[in-house]
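quick one if you have a minute, typing this from the bus. below you get a single protein, a line of residues and a line of whole numbers that encode the local backbone shape. could you go over both lines and see whether the tokens make sense for that sequence. anything you notice is useful, everything is just below.
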Amino acid sequence: MTEPVLSLRGISKRYGPLQVLKNVDLDVYPGEVVALLGENGAGKSTLSGIIAGSRAPSDGTMTWLGQPYAPAAPRDAIDKGVVLIHQELQLLPHLSIAENVFIGRWPMKNGMIDRAQMVHRAQEQLARLNLHIPATRKVAGLSTANQQLIEIAKALALKARLLILDEPTAALGGAETEALFEQVRKLRSQGVGIIYISHRMEEIRKITDRIVVLRDGERVHEFADSSTPVRTIVESMVGRSLDRMFPALPEPSSRAVLQVSGLSSPDGSFRDVTFEVHAGEIFGIAGLVGAGRTELVRAISGADPISAGSIRLEGMELKLRAPSDAIAKGIVMVPEDRKDQGLVVGHRISENIVYANLDKLGGRWITAGMKRVFAEKAVAKFGVKGRAEQYASDLSGGNQQKVVIAKWLMREPKVVVLDEPTRGIDVGARAGIYDIIVNLAKQGVAVIVVSSDLEEVLGVSNRILVLAQGRQAGILTRGEANDVSVMELATI
């Protein structure tokens, strides 16, 4: 094999007394896709940041094409040909797609930005990803999936020699994921080295050549063959045997808690949707990107308006003008984007939990002691790995998600809606969230789970509603539902 394009030796990173990386070695060769796996908090993002110049190592050395490599800033890495696509979106919503793709490196003509060239080149990158949106359109208002594809288009436009993809398909559906894989294969054939970070085991097996596993900041295993059994890889990640992923589901009651009848949205994103969710039932919603899944549950949760139909809770029709109306009636929602919509990441865990429960603490005044006791109860009850006074920004993705779930479940709701509950979360943390979902059902709560991960929606649902282009394609029982039957309905 040729010399590696990137070599890391003894890379360590400390934040005060906390060591998050310990003597990590890694080689990436031209034209290979290396999977970098590990639980949340294993050090994957820290290592990626060091390679991409956003963090400096405490110890260790790096070489790029055989020469010493120590980027002082992301621009230094980009200039070398190292590009990182972050899991968290980095777009500027009030700029156009083309401006976001070429920000900081505008195509120039006669001393001015060549906007025609910029739009043309951006449109070419979007077409490579089968994203048919005018490059002149502003990013604001685009779906999370489309914004993720724009992030990828930025990297493609940079003509990277080493590309780091951090959870690139977390918000993508099947067609978008395949378009991305096609580009990854093309880049690999052109000699580009790729570090691929994902929690989706099946895509790791499909797209990568080699697997490196981190655990607690250390490199613990390398699998030379990506066809290694998933169970073996996952057990290496978590450091223990996995007996099961999805817990056994309870039998739901015959009592309908939530009834949705003929529901339609003003913009046509979903039309004439009818279903009911029973006490103790986990009701899955599946469909391709753009099918209207998120729009539907946002309407049920009072975040978006409806143009027709009704929503009934325990037989009583609801008039929801805002999320606060739904919350007051006992319907809560854990949104798809936890950092943008679910948390105030710059505030403490305790503050985030209390914000959603001010009325539960009672009285006009809330003391620091009341806040701490309430938050500590939530942290312990829902298995958040963190102290109540820690900042939410310091937590791993899995624990941030548990905080969002905890703050709503402390209200003891009647209906819980979870939109992409395990997006960007490692296998070990997923199991904990599945346990929370099933325990809710055991307590008689009606649970709705929206997921683009087909294995997940099949694994946790008693029944599954399948949407196709905003229309209700069908509702499958647990016995009827499998990957084939769901996809047949989703592609009608």
User: Anything to note?
Assistant: Residues 38 and 214 are 5 Å apart (CA to CA). Residues 256-490 form a domain with the Rossmann fold fold (CATH 3.40.50.300).
